[in-house]
């Protein structure tokens, strides 16, 4: 089966995690199963929409952002959920999102 690579594991060539802030994770349901195709939104500290990606077939997502406080919100037919991440500097910052009705 052909599918997108797990975004949380392999970053694109040329990404310098000592200079870039990467927010990554996986969308799962309450049983821990991946939620493919969820819309994952990146909201800034005031709740303003910044970006959106579609989770991979394995529920993975990735954003490149600046240090600060961010909300990651997942919307799917399985349910919705969100989490907050506050990276203080560059690197890979992982936060999974559990969705529920």
Describe it.
- InterPro entries: CarboxyPept-like_regulatory, DUF1416.
- It comes from Gordonia desulfuricans.
- With 101 residues, the chain is mostly beta strands.
- It has a single domain (21-98), classed as Carboxypeptidase-like, regulatory domain (Immunoglobulin-like, Sandwich).
- It has strands at 21-28, 39-43, 49-54, 60-65, 70-75, 80-85, 91-94, 97-98.
- The strands form two sheets. Strands 1, 4, 7 and 8 form a four-stranded mixed beta sheet that branches. A four-stranded antiparallel beta sheet has the order 3-2-5-6, with no helix packed on it.
- It is globular, with a radius of gyration of 13 Å.
Summarize the main sheet: 4 strands, mixed
Q: Number of DSSP strands?
A: 8
Count of the separate structural domains: 1
CATH architecture label: Sandwich
SS summary, helix count: 0
Q: Could you state the order of secondary-structure elements as H and E?
A: EEEEEEEE
Gross geometry: globular
What's the rounded overall pLDDT mean? 89
> What amount of the residues lies in strands?
35-45%
Helix content: under 10%
Condensed summary:
The protein has 101 residues and is mainly beta. It has strands at 21-28, 39-43, 49-54, 60-65, 70-75, 80-85, 91-94, 97-98. This is DUF1416 domain-containing protein.
